[in-house]
Amino acid sequence: MQGRVENACSSIRHFVHLQIEEWRGEVALGELFHYTSPEGFIGIVSNRSLWASDMLSLNDASEMTYPQEIIKETVAGSDRLPEQYRERFITQLTEYMFRIDAPYVACFCQEPDLLSQWRGYGRLGEGFALGFGVGWLLSLDNIGFQLQRVIYDRDQQNHLVARFLDHVAELISAETFSDDEQKHIWQTAAMSLSSWVTMFKHPGFREENEWRVVSEIERRFSRFTANFRRAGRRVVPYTTIDIPHDMGMNGVRGTAITRVVRGPYFRSGDRRGSYFMLVSRGFILAGGRIEDSCIPFS
What we know:
- The chain has helices spanning 2-24, 38-47, 62-76, 83-96, 115-120, 134-139, 154-173, 179-192, 194-197, 220-223, 272-280; strands at residues 31-36, 49-54, 104-109, 128-133, 145-149, 210-215, 227-231, 234-242, 257-262, 290-292.
- By secondary structure, it is an alpha+beta fold.
């Protein structure tokens, strides 16, 4: 009996994983960009590492509330989740999800020169956008981070949750489960949706064209070393992702850091320091690709 329940729960987790891969598609992009301050740029290159921060400590409060609202909205309009299990499902989703464990997240943008990103993350144009090769980002699966695309379309978000509810309901209907077993399966389903919460974002942020590398929640404490940094009045947990220099890619196609774009503030100033720092840490950009923003900025 227990084996059938575990098989159902495994099928749910597998369905969630396949959907994430489907959203990601073939990833035709060659590179994605991480916007950061001058201090962040120096830290990333000097230490050859990226910081992935605890999701619940990100600046935008809607990171959690918006996807939860989408899921609750879809559940309310569906007859696939029986009434007697709904309250526990929603409680699991809104009160217990990530209470102890939350994924570590590092954020990237498809665009190398986007004004909103310079304003929000690039120190008002004084920062840098580091291009990272998608081949390297995909290889982070080996250390417990998965590259995922953010979904902004509300109808698509509702549709995906509806498909999920259909999948769970069909699994349960295919077997004869007791009331307690069905309750357990739906509770597991709510926990599995945590992987989608990291990917649903309000349509108002669509311009960002965001991608993320997201850690495996189940092995967070056993696999990742927790560090802590100050961000304003908050203490933010984070972990590091080592960046191999161009001589240490070990068969990964392409390079880790593909190019650097300097913010609009620089206006073609001296690039020597930035280039020398990259080379001294083993990053040999093709053609010395340190570029300047094309955005007029005052």
